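Problem: given the chain below (184 residues), write out its structure.
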Amino acid sequence: MKWINRLYIIFVGILLSMTTGFGVAAFYPEPRYPTYPVSKVAPIPEYCYSTPEAQKSVKCQEWTEEDKRVREKEQREYDEKMATFENVNAGYTRTAVFLGVAVGAIFAIAGISMIKKSRLLTNGLMLGAVLTAVLTRLLIKLASFGSNVEGTEGVNTLSLFEFGFLVFATLAVIFVGSKNLRDE
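Solution.
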């Protein structure tokens, strides 16, 4: 029975940390990477590359210069969007880590307050507190895979469903474990 208790502690800790990661991802979505621009310039005709004389023709030179100018402009705009994204992402990471540490502290306080009732549940809550505080940003990244692939921001229904399912599963595991498993 001792191995079941240890497995229960680990499972509760993992469930609590995953629920926190999915909850933060559901209600506080990650910023999205900017998309690299698709060039709006018509491609340079092939005959401009066929011979050195064709490359030096006035029309081919104009097309090449126009293509170069537009691509440089698009690259500058993309670089500006990336710099903005990096600033927003740094703030997001700081806030997400803070939320993870705060929720981990709540789990730790809940675990300490239940120490006389169930040492088994206390250990699960304490493991959940440590995992949540340490792994929140990674868990948010995992929870965000595939969400908002079209680039929309905000809460989406699937994220809420996943979070709700994890809350239900966590509460069910804690309830069943506290009723059926005994401290040793």
